[in-house]
Specification:
single chain, alpha/beta, 7-stranded mixed beta sheet, 3-stranded antiparallel beta sheet, 14% strand, Pser_aminoTfrase_mycobac, amino-acid biosynthesis
Length: 373
């Protein structure tokens, strides 16, 4: 019987969590939650105790991203999957165009394609590892793209579509990019994300930074008489957020942990600090892969390599699944690739919560394992 591979403690990262979502939650955030457990958890989300935390989260998000004049931070339940449906009912007037280059962008496309009250969308696709781009098209009132494709590790800049029809909106999926990648919010109308990635919390919420044009569109669509399920009513989410609450009961721990994480990142220097820290982690893992004889970055074009999520391919004869299994047995977890890609690779989160030194330690552990497999 083969002896299990034991990685020496001095090679291991201090914290072995590298999941792309749910991601690492800072122990300090959990400790802060424990301190308020008896006065916050298990209390009414309509009362000041909880509304103050919703307000703290909204205020912190606005500060972190440098919210432009007129933009608002809107929060509601359900995560990004719920937001795709919310946007389908409440933001797309007639026809949308998508840039699809991974699993998560495809899910929004499906929601819109299945909606009987919308025209079939235009979809620009790219295979896994590449990027697709939006381009101006007459009659399109809503454009949608992903800033960071969690499944593949491709990232693209957030930029408005030149030549788009007047009044057309741009929706940017920042679920895994928001908080790790730089962004100019004036280049988009809705920058939406979830707290279980860079914002070091649990899932269950969606957070959208919305321009005045997007808010106006939501009200006009509702006033048009379109049927909108109450849970997916964007106007309700807007109006409830202005009251520092959500329409349905939120997960209170999620709200608190996200607010703690945002305050921590703001105290470190905000988005500029967070993007730099993620870039340092990215340099560590991509640099290692470029030097390695058995590993290479899955994304061949360096400009597309994400600083939020790294995907690393391994040569034939080196079993990435076996590496991930040994890592997990040694307390280094969630390095497995996105299942539907079907590649011999590892996927590593580079969110600001992750210490770049821990990413460097991870690469040493991988080398140690490969030498012994």
């Amino acid at each position: 019987m083969t002896e299990p591979i034991r990685i020496p403690d001095d090679l291991k990262p201090v914290d072995g969590r590298f999941g792309s979502g749910p991601s690492k939650v800072r122990p300090e955030g959990v400790e802060a939650l424990a301190r308020v457990a008896t006065t916050f958890l298990g209390t009414s989300h309509r009362q000041k105790t909880v509304k103050d935390e919703v307000a703290r989260l909204r205020r912190g998000i606005g500060e972190f991203f440098g919210l432009p004049d007129g933009y608002e931070v809107i929060i509601s339940n359900g995560g990004t999957s719920a937001f795709w449906e919310t946007a389908t009912f409440g933001l797309i007037r007639e026809k949308a165009q998508f840039a699809e280059f991974g699993e998560f962008g495809a899910k929004f496309v499906k929601a819109v394609t299945d909606a009987p009250f919308l025209a079939d969308p235009t979809v620009h696709k790219a295979p896994g590892g590449g990027a697709a781009y939006l381009r101006a098209e007459a009659g399109v009132d809503t454009y949608a793209s992903v800033q960071n494709e969690t499944s593949t590790g491709v990232a693209v800049p957030v930029k408005r579509v030149a030549g788009a029809d007047p009044g057309a909106l741009l929706l940017t999926d920042a679920t895994s990019g928001g908080g790790s990648l730089d962004v100019d919010l004036t280049e988009t109308d809705v920058y939406y994300l979830a707290p279980q990635k860079a914002f070091g919390s649990d899932g269950g919420l969606w957070i959208a930074l919305m321009s005045p044009a997007a808010i106006d569109r939501a009200y006009k669509i509702k006033e048009s008489g379109r049927y909108i399920p109450q849970f997916l009513d964007l106007v309700t989410a807007i109006e409830q957020s202005r009251l520092e609450q959500t329409y349905n009961t939120p997960a209170l721990a999620t709200v608190f942990l996200a607010a703690e994480q945002v305050d921590w990142m703001n105290a470190q220097g905000g988005l500029a600090w967070a993007a730099k820290r993620s870039a340092e982690s990215a340099a560590a893992i991509y640099g290692w892969a470029d030097r390695s004889t058995v590993a290479t970055p899955f994304i061949t074009e360096p400009a597309l390599r994400s600083n939020a999520v790294a995907t690393i391919d391994f040569a034939d004869g080196v079993d990435a699944a076996a590496i991930a299994k040994v890592l997990r047995a040694n307390g280094i977890v969630d390095t497995e690739p996105y299942r539907k890609l079907g590649r011999n690779q590892l996927r590593v989160a580079l969110y600001p919560t992750v210490d770049p030194a821990d990413v460097e330690a991870l690469t040493r552990c991988i080398d140690f394992i490969v030498d012994r497999l």
